[in-house]
Amino acid sequence: MALVHKLLNGTYILSKCLKPSVASCPFLSTSFADYCSRSLQKPVATPGKASTQRNSAEGLQGDHQREVALDITSPEEKPEVSFDKAIKDEIKEHFWRLKDEIVNHWIGPEGRPLQEVIMEQARVVWQFRGKEDLDKWIVTSDKTIGGRSEVFLKMGKNNQSALLYGTLSSAAPQDGEKSQSGYCAMISRIPRGAFDRKKSYDWSQFNTLYLRVRGDGRPWMVNIREDTDIIQKNNQMYSYFMFTRGGPYWQEVKIPFSKFFFSNQGRIRDAQFQLLLDKISSIGFTLADKVDGPFFLEIDFIGVFADPAHTEEFAYENSPVLNPRLFR
Amino acid sequence: MRQPRLREVKAVSSGHAAGGQLGQNSNPRLPVFSQRSQNPGSQPQSCCGCPTSRGMSWAQAIMLARGWRGICGAALTGAPFSQVPFQVPRGLHCSVATHSSDSSLVPRPPKPLWQPAKPLSPHEELFRLAPDGARDKASFVQAVQNFGQHNVRKRGHVDFIYLALRKMRDYGVEKDLTVYNLLLDVFPKEVFKPRNIFQKIFIHYPRQQECGLAVLEQMENHGVMPNKETEFLLIQIFGRKSYPMLKFVRMKLWFSRFKNINPFPMPRDLPKDPVDLATLGLRHIEPDLSARVTVYQMASSKDSTGTADSTEQHIVGIQSPDQQAALARHNPARPIFVEGPFSLWLRDRCVYYHILRADLEPPEEREVEEIPEEWNLYYPIQLDLKYGRSGWDDYEFDIDEVEEGPVFAICMAGAHDQATLAKWIKGLQETNPALAQIPVIFRLTASTGELLASSSGLEEPCPPPPQEEEEEEDNTQRQQQGQS
Fold it and tell me: Lower CB density within 10 Å: C or N end of chain A?
């Protein structure tokens, strides 16, 4: 974090007042400069806010299509680039969040009274009622690997839904390595607490994912990723398919969590185990159905609920042919 | 020719797998991508080597290919390229004069003796068509069988199979299981099976196993389910413990698990007739099973007399009895809108539909329908008990769902202009006489695929409306932001 760099720099200069050159600590200086340049790149109306720096630091892929409704700054509001001010704002914001967290801990989980949380049967996790709700999502496409699909995310009609639209193109990038291409994805950001600590969702009391969408008949894939602190878990995710009907009516999609299958590095694994719901970090929607053309998906909200009629724990059993070790 | 083959092998393994390991390839991949034919060597007439010739004869191409192979061979042994004596075979119709005049006028650095063109694949000539031949299954099968005839020992079968996999899409056989089995038949049998413990430990004949995996992977990408013949061939060729066999077992498992998970199944072969396709699409998007599909106009081809200005496009509409009743109840003072076109994908075909809807009524004007007691599904209907439900029994989401106006009818037409849709409205008036009194406004946007939201600037100006009763022309430049 820049705070650390600033402190280290400051102390270094204090201790070695004869040599105030920053060049002697190249590591600090280069990362210092890097941080500074990244905060300069975003012409958003509030450059000093910590949220911007967090956005730029997190998803480099998101930079390629930052179509999360970028505000064009009006000429009057020139973004002031003052590193000290940015640092102060960031410190204040993080301490504010820490204070919120401590206070909320007394009230109950995530600031809601425990009674309410325990008896909750249906919870809305992501809703799309304003521009700030779009900031919680990153959109990517195969442009990052050299393909030609485009994807954009914007608020829908009446600010009542989010519209993910674009064009899918499965023309492979001609770089000799990849022979296949063509995907678009919308991934939720990992929730962050004070000092950018990763938080996770706890859905252990629910057993079904609920989506209210309106698509165009294309099949999508819903991916859930668990807590990614362990490096090996970076490429692991649990997925299932979401089939949209198309048409002018809203569609309710209910996917029980027991149906999600496990995959690692993009391939389904032989050893399947169920999705554990206590540390979910992000959810994502991917379109890769090998059909070129425009697409759109309108999402009203995403929620989880506990379906009392669904008693299945896990839908896939391990086969002794593929996994003899499990059956020894 | 080793160099292209290495590239093919690299290209087959997925881009995000670290190193093209066989184990990675044998798992079914998700999300599944299509494999486009890259055509690296499918044009023997491509201009390679000669900058001024417009085309080369086939014999020269082969000669060039052999020369290219020689270069590659030289490169692999480490000889620098410039030392390879290579004469550019110029075409016979390429005049000498132009070439020399170019070089004499301006001193240029020496051009590379060959252009970086796509090298020819070794068995390309087997897929050369007869002058009147069509690219279909029969010619593909013939080409595959020719390979076996000319080459009893099946030399270069791996390259041939890769080439054939690339060519399948051009010949239209990529979803045909018998063709895949035929392609697997090209492998020599019983040669690649491991026979002792050392061969079993190390991957026996890795290139051939990768090739077998590539065949199965293309089957997987196109959704072709292998059958017993495939299993028998794989066992015969690679043995039971090989990676292609492992992938086959996985395909059998996961394909059968996911065969019927689509809650809105779509037939694999879509009808060619646009009216049938429109009917299928309309039935697909309308959940009410009692809805009736009406064909208002059949597509008619242009007559030779050319009396009609334009070809008549098909118009197919759907409306359910509930929608009919709602339209009959609609207040004639409020206009209804024809919106569209919106895109709908049926497998790999995109069709467009329009809807007839009204805006949401403001809360004060909404009338609450009285459902007779016997028809109400929700119990209790009217109960004055203090029937309080505590917190644990509440399955509703704490959010206001998006409310939109009612949809009265949906149609699919060949053309998206107002004249065609006006015909649809006229046809609707036969079953909905109330429609005659209601003003209909056309809100047609460019089909950017956005439902009920137009991007400013792409909106098409609507043509002046035909002379219909009670039809107003909307202000066409009106933005559709939050009109409900």
Answer: C
